[in-house]
Amino acid sequence: MPSYFQFVLTLMNGLTYGALLFAIASGFTLVFGLMRVLNLSHGAIYLLGAYVGYTVSRTVTDWVTAWLPALGGVGWVAGVCGAGLAGALIALVLQRLIRGVDGELPQTLLTLGLAITIGDLCLWIWGGLPLTLEPPEAVSQAVRIAGIPYPGYRVFVIAFALFIGVALYLLLFRSQLGRIIRAGVDNREMVAATGVDIDRLFLKVFMLGGALTGVSGAIGGSYLAFQPGTDFEILTIALFVVVIGGLGSLLGSAVGAVIVGLIDSFGRAYFSELSMFLLSGTVILVLAFRTQGLFGRSVERG
Amino acid sequence: MHTEIRTSLNERLADTARRGNRRDVTTAAVLMALAVLYPLLGTTFQLQLLTSGLITGMVAMSFSLLAGFGGMVSLAQMAFYGMAAYVVGIGGHDMGLPALLTVPLAVLSAAVLAGLFGLIAVRSSGIYFLIMTLALLQMFFGVAMQWQSVTGGYNGVAGIQAPEVAGFSLGDAAPLYLVTVIVAAASYLGLRWLLRTPFGLTLQGIRDRPERMRALGFRVQLHRWLLMVLSGVIAGLAGVLGVYYHGVVSPDVAGLTASLIVVLSALVGGVSSLVGGLIGGILVTVLISVVSYLMQQWFGTSHYWTVVGLIFVVVVKNFPNGIFGVDARTRRVLERVLTRWTGAGSGDGARAPAGNGTSPQTR
Amino acid sequence: MSALLSIDDLHVYYASAHVLQGVSFEHDGGVLCLLGRNGMGKTTLARSIMGLVPVSDGEVRVRGDAVTNHAPHRVAARGVGYVPQGRDIYPSLTVDEHLRMLAGRTEGEWTMPRVYELFPRLEERRTVHAGHLSGGEQQMLAIARALMTNPSLMIMDEPSEGLAPVIVEPLIEKLRTLAASGMAILLIEQNLRMATAVADELLIMVSGRLEARIPPRELEADSALQQQLLGVTMND
């Protein structure tokens, strides 16, 4: 039954993509929620993470397999870590740049410039060909789901997203830093007036978001090919996710990610030319009825 | 009930704005004469650079129109440009329709698209407006990319022939340059006239004091929407010129890079000035050309966007309201008149600084 | 020994409006109440002390150290607690989280048990999200939150605003308790009952300037002065 086969496969692909999108969008939405800055270089950080992950992974794998062939997977892990580091580093630079700029709109526009620079630097360093990282065999064994063989790595991506979701939940709702972040989302002026250094808080959240995005780049880049232009694509999809789910809401970005992942997957499988229409239509439909997205709070607080 | 107040407010505003107009008109006439005579002196390369700069400048002007006069920072302007360009490309090239039909259709399409986007976007303001317009721009990009049977996908529509005007082909540098100068100047003068009418002054009142204008009975969202459509027309005109200039249209017109150029041009010119957009467009086009040349000469690379992106960062960081923000004086006058006619200053003032007199932060 | 808080010729502008026009005073313990009508610059004064609005000219000193235009957290670290106008509690945090997020950040007598002891009502509602509290409870929470920073001076901006008289009375009691424990308070008020009930001294503010510094009794006795300075009388 090829149609059943196709349906389950499309569903699984959609969920996997949704999982990856959640990991990407959570950092995006967290930064926005706290600082009201839309990081337009978010897609570029993803792409940079993928490229750095690729290079680190290749280098370390070559080096390790020369000595201990059995530990080849270490290279990939190193690549993922390197990607996170690169993302955090860019976020650090970005936060330093933004700090002296007054107002959310100029701050947001500033990130546009950085996005273009990072994108062009990546093209400069890594060229224009599509690349992918090679995940270790331990996570790439095929598994059977609903009677259908499915690439194990994609299941790993779902597990990764669940892990990120739980970790972020614990961070936000069970830790001291999380309480301060949530208070800052509600009213950052007041948080500052109770003795919290708001710039340092921003820096932490920004770097966390950057690291998460960089790691997502390496994880996503291990099964989705990346190339120049991926940065804009990812920014687009991440923005759709948070706009549907509600800006600044973690739960919203989880739901939005699954919705966007499924629409994208089914759209591509069944209406190849029109998947973007479907996705855009959904975004417009949500906005027409709820300007603040599905889980967003009242929007006009800017 | 508020009609009387509104009428007198409008008259006061119009009167204030009318003064000191004459000198500007003379300056504009001299500039115009110089611009029209330029082909006698300039090389083809210079003419092309100026044409391209003016086209970018028109989009930047449409951006400034929304940002500086409506308080709406829109990243969707290149979608309107792209819409018009695609209509000319698909209609003229793929379907063989005459330019006399495709050009008005293209501008109309851009206006309609702006109207549709506006329906969604004008309900939000500030950073949320920017986000909505960015999402809409990305939708346009995505559809242009994916709907291959119509748009030609990644490659877009190529080989678009420019029509002839009075026996001169717009495919040649000088005629296209002259037409561009005329269209850009006409757009600028038209907008300038419009902004001096009660409609335009109401818009500026809405930008500065939306709540107060709403309380006075002005239809704030309708005005914002009309402004959006108007900006779509200007960007659409630029799209028509742009597609004849390049002979190609691809999804890249709605990419981040294209939007960066528009915003940079508007910032360089000063968002509170319309003519600033045109000047900014030319300056930025020349700047990019120079950077590209120098990168090639010094480093032997074509990766000048790395540098242009950094220049953009520097400009935003140091001049968030534009390098030549020339209209601050006019704004102060308007602010004073508005304040006098709509009641005393605002409350304790502590909670709501009523706009700090510079556009991009106005929300 | 320098005063706890001293303000010297403070000027603040909003756009082109000159909101504070050379305000000077000292506050060295007890309850000092800043009275004035709406729009006279009272809230701006509080916010400029906290570093929440930029000061154009003049100086704010806490125990002799200049904190003019310092970041809000540095002002808070000097021992200035802030209870803002409109309370500004965090709607998505529970009562407990409001206090817990500040627990252990500063040394001093105000710990969570101590704060709950002062506000038993808050302890009853510790798991409730602050957005669901009543206006009076939100005000208590805003004060409790400021106490958690262990301040030596509390700036309270119109704590009685929007509260029914039956709720204002217990609030007055709490402020008296705090004052009796030695806490210095700068109270900003429009409510004459509240001001005269707790204040040791009154500062009268008119159009961005301080017009008078008088004992509460003097204002209480003179309804013409009340009318002139504030546009209200005790009987309003």
UniProtKB/TrEMBL annotation, chain C:
<dbReference type="GO" id="GO:0015658">
    <property type="term" value="F:branched-chain amino acid transmembrane transporter activity"/>
</dbReference>
<protein>
    <submittedName>
        <fullName>High-affinity branched-chain amino acid transport ATP-binding protein LivF</fullName>
    </submittedName>
</protein>
<dbReference type="InterPro" id="IPR017871">
    <property type="entry name" value="ABC_transporter-like_CS"/>
</dbReference>
<keyword id="KW-0547">Nucleotide-binding</keyword>
<dbReference type="InterPro" id="IPR003439">
    <property type="entry name" value="ABC_transporter-like_ATP-bd"/>
</dbReference>
<keyword id="KW-0813">Transport</keyword>
<dbReference type="GO" id="GO:0016887">
    <property type="term" value="F:ATP hydrolysis activity"/>
</dbReference>
<dbReference type="GO" id="GO:0015807">
    <property type="term" value="P:L-amino acid transport"/>
</dbReference>
<comment type="similarity">
    <text>Belongs to the ABC transporter superfamily.</text>
</comment>
<dbReference type="InterPro" id="IPR003593">
    <property type="entry name" value="AAA+_ATPase"/>
</dbReference>
<keyword id="KW-0029">Amino-acid transport</keyword>
<feature type="domain" description="ABC transporter">
    <location>
        <begin position="5"/>
        <end position="232"/>
    </location>
</feature>
<dbReference type="Pfam" id="PF00005">
    <property type="entry name" value="ABC_tran"/>
</dbReference>
<dbReference type="GO" id="GO:0005524">
    <property type="term" value="F:ATP binding"/>
</dbReference>
<dbReference type="InterPro" id="IPR052156">
    <property type="entry name" value="BCAA_Transport_ATP-bd_LivF"/>
</dbReference>
<keyword id="KW-0067">ATP-binding</keyword>
<dbReference type="InterPro" id="IPR027417">
    <property type="entry name" value="P-loop_NTPase"/>
</dbReference>
